Amino acid sequence: MNDTITILGIETSCDETAAAVLRRHGDGTTEILSNIIHTQDDHAAFGGVVPEIAARAHVEKADQVVTRALEEAGMTDGGIDAVAATSGPGLIGGVMVGMMTAKAYALSRAIPFIPVNHLEGHALSARLTEDCPFPYLLLLVSGGHTQLLRVDGVGRYARLGTTIDDAAGEAFDKTAKLLGLGQPGGPKVQAAAETGDATRFDLPRPLLKRPGYDFSFSGLKTAVRLAAEELAPLSDQDIADICASFQRAAAKHLAARTERAMTDFEIPAGDTGRLVIAGGVAANTEIRAALTALVDSKGWTLLVPPSKYCTDNAAMIALAGAEHLVAEGAPPLAETLALAPRARWPLDENPEGRRHGGGKKGPKA
Amino acid sequence: MTSLGASLASLLSSGDVVRLEGPLGAGKTVFARGLIRALTSEGEEVPSPTFALVQVYDTKAGPLWHMDLYRLEDEDEIVDLGFEEAQDDAICLIEWPSRAESYMPDNALTVKIAVDASDASRRQVTLTAIAGHEAAWRERLATMDAGQVKGSE
């Protein structure tokens, strides 16, 4: 399939409701015709604050964002070739609504519906705006995920490591909560850390001697709690120092595990290493500085998508859907209409038959 | 904490609700991980449920729901998570149950994890049940490994 295709993407797996229209040309280049995100406020960078649990709230918003995405793209009178929606992993109520919306649209227009793994959207997101050939190393850091993936091509992902407990964004949120900073945790901790002394508290370096590429943030969270309890009542300076120390420790941990993965990453002859960061936590300046220094020291290239494509968005879902449509052809509608959402769905679970991995085991919730 | 969770796992069955209480960082998820792995496999990935609110596992003892109500704004939201249906056939492990107190069943077992005041690396675990359901839980808990029970009551 080398023709231009126009695809509607829907993302509802987390705390946002999003829709986008993307056009993929025969030469593989893409254009984002619209990218709509409905969110409570602009603080969602670290994984969101208030989860949208009620399916009915999603239903209302899903319709709105889809309509707006189609309007902005000038596609209200048709012209959409396929629709892709996040089918997991994530908050199951939200995923269900996104899938239902997409299925209804696909059915009414008799166009293919393509289920997409949310993590695959992130894995490919850098390619929306950057010149980012395969292979590359992806560090996904958000409120719900902290993973290192090797991306060799569309549908070709190997998960190198993941958090064994809390996600990085969750650790920021919980640190903010412990210190009474309020939400959203990421920006609050970063702001408080600006006037803090990052060397005051000797927080643990998780998994320092452990081989592999996994992450752990639960111990850091506990260490923050202990430090706060010992000093209570906390002065503003104490809070700033704890935040700075925590942020430094989190950045060092992310960089240390990423460095291991870079060291072991096989780069094709004549190519250079590429590190892509995705997810809301990539917005944290200390973390970004630590990774920039790491990449520079290794002679690699760092690629960070603009924040609207770095955090949860539907353009990346549309892109993943379009790439699969081109690579594998249209899946039979009857088959994908029958798929159920999945709360947990590892990206490399079924690399050869992603589409069939969608519903084989039935719904996870 | 992991092995205590594993010991409790052996006596749970469908319909049981276990409330996990304790401050942030006390070890609720660690306890839950031990319990879930004892009912699935040692390698089972048990991520923190904070973000997704619910993680569902297929276990030897039937479906198990690992829930975290930490992010709930309103307790009625637990209905949207499917909690009432889950109680019909699943074991429910609930972190931050007080966020939806009025939905918690009377026959739930409460596992309260406290950080030792004199030694922050130590934990005190208290198991309690509401009067009227206490005897039944006491009887079931008696089947747990004695060494584990001693350290936890």
The shape of chain B is globular
Name given to the CATH homologous superfamily of the largest domain in chain A: ATPase, nucleotide binding domain
- Helical coverage of chain B, percent range: 25-40%
Uncertain spans of chain B: 147-153
Number of domains of chain A: 2
Structural category of chain B = alpha/beta
Order of helices and strands of chain A: EEEHEHEHHEEEHHHHEHEHHHH
In percent, how helical is the residue content of chain A?
40-55%
Name of the CATH class of the largest domain in chain A: Alpha Beta
Low-confidence stretches of chain A: 42-49, 351-365
Termini gap of chain A:
36 Å
Characteristic terms for this protein:
heterodimer; A: 365 residues; alpha/beta; Nucleotidyltransferase, domain 5; 2 domains; 5-stranded mixed sheet; 13 helices; 10 strands; 42% helix; globular; disordered C terminus; B: 153 residues; 6-stranded mixed sheet; 6 helices; EC 2.3.1.234 (chain A); ATPase_NBD (chain A)
Short description:
Chain A: It comes from Aquisalinus luteolus. Chain A: Residues 345-355 have a biased composition (Basic and acidic residues). The complex is a heterodimer of chains A (365) and B (153). Chain A has 365 residues and is an alpha/beta fold.
